[in-house]
Design the sequence.
């Protein structure tokens, strides 16, 4: 269950990171409010997951999920470049997340 909670925390991290872009520096009210709600939810679910997961593992996976998600949304929503090196780096992050998950009970 803690892994599902951590995954949810990661999804909220993606949401608030993308929300930051849409809020234009917290100058547009609706994206700003949604971003803050997602930030609170992300930290809340991370805190719940940390009750039973090791800090280093949970934090690395949480930020990895956020990193991968924001890169994907950056490509889709904001037409950021897709390069072989960028995809390779995302693959390395996925390998790191998978490795940490496999070695953590």
Sequence:
């Amino acid at each position: 269950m803690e892994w599902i909670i951590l995954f949810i925390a990661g999804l909220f991290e993606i949401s608030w990171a993308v929300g930051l872009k849409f809020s234009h520096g917290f100058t547009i009210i609706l994206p700003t409010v949604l971003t803050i709600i997602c930030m609170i939810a992300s930290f809340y679910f991370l805190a719940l997951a940390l009750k039973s997961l090791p800090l280093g593992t949970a934090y690395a996976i949480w930020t990895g999920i956020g990193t991968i998600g924001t890169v994907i949304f950056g490509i889709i929503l904001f037409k950021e470049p897709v390069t072989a090196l960028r995809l390779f780096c995302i693959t390395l992050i996925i390998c790191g997340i998978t490795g940490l998950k496999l070695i953590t009970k």
